[in-house]
Write a structure and sequence with these properties.
The protein has helices spanning about 5-30, 35-55, 60-85, 100-120, 125-130, 135-155; strands at about 30, 85-90, 95. The chain is mainly α and about 170 residues long.
Length: about 170
């Protein structure tokens, strides 16, 4: 994967989008919909699969093991992040609000992802593999978080609209 200026700008833009659409909104609270639960993880995972496809064709067993460990740990952090958020019914759908522990777990998620990059470098794993799988692993982590949130919504019998209402009445 080429880490030229355009790629760096693209990653920075995607990181900013994820930070705003996921972390910030979750911290302040947001109304959920099926569309909101599915769209961002799907887009990030699709970009991740596309960008990692070439690098993974020639990956070693160590690189695959590192990626598998990364995905499993980030998936578990997704479950934990979901379980620390507060769900309630509001305006015909579910309102989700993160707690201070949710924010700590987001920092842990970022730390784990960076840590796996350093571990990969220490093990001699190609930078191409670790950098090309960033969107894939983050997409999976957010997808697992949203899937567990959906499970919690269903278990509690909370409403979930198809389309998110435009604004929140506070």
């Amino acid at each position: 994967m080429n880490l030229g200026p355009l790629t760096i700008v693209l990653y920075a833009a995607i990181a900013a989008l994820v930070l705003y659409r996921v972390v910030y909104r979750q911290w302040r609270g947001t109304l959920l919909s099926r569309k909101r639960l599915l769209t961002l993880p799907f887009i990030l995972t699709a970009i991740g699969v596309f960008s990692a496809a070439t690098a993974l064709q020639s990956a070693t067993a160590t690189e695959y093991a590192l990626l598998a460990g990364d995905v499993v740990i980030l998936g578990l952090l997704g479950v934990l992040r979901s379980s620390t958020s507060v769900l309630s019914a509001r305006e015909g759908t579910t309102f989700v609000k993160g707690t201070p522990l949710t924010l700590v777990l987001w920092f842990a998620t970022i730390g784990v992802r960076v840590g796996f990059s350093f571990l990969g470098a220490a093990l001699g794993v190609s930078n191409t593999v670790t950098s090309s799988t960033i969107m894939l692993t983050i997409g999976v982590s957010i997808g697992v978080q949203n899937a567990f949130t959906y499970y919690r919504i269903q278990k509690r019998g909370l409403p979930l609209s198809e389309q998110t209402p435009v604004s929140i009445s506070r």
